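Quick question, first post here. What does this chain look like in 3D?
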Amino acid sequence: MKGTLPVPRPVIRRKFGPQQVDKSSPGYLASVTPEPIEANRRSALVRDQHVADVLAWKARQSEARRRNLREGLVELSDRKLQSQRRTEARSAKNRAEREALLYAPEREDERLTSSSVLHLEQPKKYYVLPDPGREARLARKRENLAKMEALEEEHRRNALHTLYVNAGDFITTGAQLDATIDRVFDDWDQFTNDSKPGMNIWNIGYPETVAQLLAKSDQTSRRGSINKKATDDTNYNADITRARMRKIAEELTGGKMLDTP
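> Answer (accepted):
Ran it through. Tokens below.
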């Protein structure tokens, strides 16, 4: 046959849920194959013999369809139950045979012809391997899990507090954005003058390159004079000291401090 046939719909369900009914039950059969009422039996009231014969033939056909539907549903249900019982019996038999072979004792010929290994040293078959230290190990793992969860909660709380502290410099409104743009790109107040150095983006110049940053952080570099190197060392030590002092203050106060110059 050319092509493929669709998968047949299951007429009898394997399991009946709250919204499903047993199609082989008398109640379901009575609802799907109702008997004709007396008002529909008009064959006896019709005077025309031909019309009466047609109505009688239709009544016989309806009765045959109702009977075939009832018998078909009952037989399909019985066939389904029988097939299910055979499948369950076959599965139980195979499972019993497997269990018997798996836990069967050693045959006598195998015991007599096996290598000379002490009986106590041979592996034994256990349903569950013995584990005397299971409870202590599980208790230790629960304690470690509780510690890890507490540590993660502390890290999460510190990250949230750090975000809250640093949120003071975030630009969240249009007015803050306009003020920042005016401050950074101001053409008059932010240039270098007699009183203060300029902070204008065009006055500061290009940012430092990676080579310049590496040369500045390299304390063993021979570039520059001794005084410049001493000044760089002093600035480096001051930065380290400032970072350590901020860390100590954060540990004592339990909060995050702003990294201000």
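Residues 49-102 form the longest helix (54 residues).
The helical segments are 26-32, 49-102, 108-113, 134-166, 174-184, 201-204, 210-217, 226-253.
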